[in-house]
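Hypothesis: this fold can be encoded by more than one sequence.
Test: take the structure tokens below, design a sequence, compare later.
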């Protein structure tokens, strides 16, 4: 039963990500939106390989650091299980990104960005249920950003190496987002 719910959540996330692209089709837009105003598609912003690799590295490091923290401080068995999965998957993604960066002669910044560091600092002061709720909210936001980042990289990366890296990471971050959507109570998502 839980596996079916996870698959449904993952499919829902994938559909939510794909729906904006269907609005670009005038025929689909007319059927989907009977409103008299036109449906407009916002273009996916460009991203350079260096920017993508930097942001992806920082996102992966955030998942690793916050996941390690959750393995120590979380009360919920589900949060600890998600943390183990995130650490494992994002460690692999960080290594894959580092390999692509090295191939392209790009050096991503070390560490976390200031916002990520502030989130880790906040989480480090919490424990138990308060930690679990804050960690789930932070992970939900981080994975929404990760899906958007990887879509940008997949569609607009400068090189095939970066586009491929982003494409291969999309199912993983989408699965994580689906898992988070299942376990995060609706009242804590915002």
């Amino acid at each position: 039963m839980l596996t079916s719910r996870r698959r449904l959540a993952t499919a829902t996330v994938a559909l939510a990500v794909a729906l904006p692209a269907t609005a670009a089709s005038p025929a689909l837009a007319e059927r989907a939106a009977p409103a008299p105003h036109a449906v407009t598609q916002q273009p996916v912003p460009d991203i350079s390989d260096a920017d993508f690799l930097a942001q992806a590295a920082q996102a992966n490091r955030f998942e690793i650091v916050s996941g390690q923290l959750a393995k120590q401080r979380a009360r919920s068995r589900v949060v600890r299980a998600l943390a183990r999965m995130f650490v494992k998957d994002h460690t692999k993604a960080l290594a894959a990104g580092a390999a692509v960066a090295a191939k392209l002669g790009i050096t991503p910044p070390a560490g976390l960005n200031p916002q990520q560091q502030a989130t880790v600092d906040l989480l480090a002061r919490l424990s138990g249920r308060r930690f679990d709720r804050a960690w789930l909210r932070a992970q939900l936001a981080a994975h929404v950003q990760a899906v958007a980042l990887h879509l940008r990289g997949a569609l607009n990366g400068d090189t095939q190496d970066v586009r491929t890296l982003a494409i291969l990471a999309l199912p993983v971050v989408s699965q994580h987002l689906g898992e988070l959507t299942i376990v995060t109570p609706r009242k804590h998502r915002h």
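Residues 70 and 97 are 24 Å apart (CA to CA). The chain has one domain: 46-188.
Hypothesis status: open.
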